[in-house]
Amino acid sequence: MQITTKQLKRSDLSFVRDLAYTVWPVSYALIITEHQINYMLDAMYSTKKLEEDFDAGQQFYGCFKKEKLIGFITFENNHPGSKQMKIHKLYVDTLSTKKGIGNALVNCAKDCAKKTDMNEIVLNVNRKNPAIKFYQKIDFIIDREEIIDIGEGFIMDDYIMKYTLPC
Questions:
Q1: What values do phi and psi take at 51, rounded to 5?
Q2: Residue 123 pLDDT more than 70?
Q3: In the chain, N or C: fewer CB atoms in 10 Å?
């Protein structure tokens, strides 16, 4: 399978939105309610919100099979005002999991972190999400727990995971 990874432009954000709306209902069906899935998708993946994230400096990268987006990652440096990179989003099309796409996207973030002199990468992951095992396999560790009130009576019950870049 020929896969290419490239930085996404603002004009590519509709593809990110479409993939999120495809992946989330499958990935989170056993973790959170359908109502919360829809609420979070609307809050985090509306075209307006993605454009705001892009304009605020989040970098978007995607993996493509031919011309089709099959995975994406978003991150930003110095979050919050430190030598930390924060991964905000990482999703792979459910038909393309376990094919190295997630690794390619995280490696892209690691490369960008090294080039910009970051010393660690952090991310949030739901404490019931099987992706925890993926992150642990690629040397992320659970740093702490965090509960975030996201409105409408919903919370995010997460682990904060981190990866320390080699010196």
A1: -65, -40
A2: yes
A3: C
Pairing of the two strands 3-7 and 154-164: unpaired
Rounded to whole angstroms, the Cα distance separating 41 from 56 reads: 19
| Residue 75 to residue 49: CA distance in whole angstroms | 15
The predicted pLDDT at position 2 comes to 85
**Domains in the chain with CATH codes:** 3-164 (3.40.630.30)
Long-range contacts for 36-45 (Cβ within 8 Å, ≥24 apart)? 36/154, 39/150, 39/151, 39/152, 39/154, 40/150, 40/154, 43/150, 43/151, 44/20, 44/89, 45/16, 45/17, 45/20, 45/21
3-class DSSP state for residue 35?
Answer: helix
pTM: 0.94
DSSP 58: -
The sign one gets for the Cα dihedral 49, 114, 101, 61 is positive
User: Quick one: average pLDDT of 103-127?
Assistant: 96
Strands 120-126 and 84-92: parallel
Q: Which amino acid is it at 104?
A: A
Tell me the β-bridge partners of 97: none
